[in-house]
Amino acid sequence: QVQPVESGGGLVQAGGSLRLSCAASGRTFSSYFMAWFRQAPGKEREFVSATSRGTGTTYYADSVKGRFTMSRSNAWNTVYLQMNSLKPEDTAVYYCASASKTLTGWRSLDDTWGQGTQVTVSS
User: Computed from CA positions of residues 69, 116, 40, 111, in that sequence, does the dihedral angle turn out positive or negative?
Assistant: First the structure.
């Protein structure tokens, strides 16, 4: 399947901000939930944030609450992740994917991961 396209990553100093974007490969996203995941080298991929098509309700991992804000376009073709007060531990490749909320947490519905966008936070 074709993955959504992420952009907006870069190199910033601790305390800085970045705004990530994720664009649908088609007219709109096909899922009800879209989510951001991230993975640092040698570590497991982890859930960061998610939002719903219906109401724009947002969900966040405890590690980013109060610092990151997810939003969406009303056309449901773009989602964003505003990242403030960045920390070195936020350094990772960030991926956007269709998602599902299960009893054990959020998971991607995509078979494969796209290129993602690299976020590097220097101390």
Answer: positive
Mean pLDDT of successive 10-residue stretches along the chain, which has 123 residues: 87 98 92 96 96 95 98 96 98 97 93 92 97
The helix (run of H) or strand (run of E) holding residue 15 is none
Return the SS3 of 65.
coil
Contact 34, 51 (CB under 8 A): yes
The CA distance from 46 to 76, in Å, is: 23
- For 2, 34, 74, 86, 123, the CA distances from 120, given in Å and listed in that order, are 26, 23, 30, 9, 10
The answer to whether residues 9 and 18 touch, using CB atoms and an 8 Å cutoff, is: yes
If phi > 0 it is left, if psi is from -120 to 50 it is alpha, else beta; for residue 71 that is beta
Sign of CA dihedral 44, 65, 54, 103: positive
Name which of 59, 10, 18 is nearest 35 in CA terms: 59
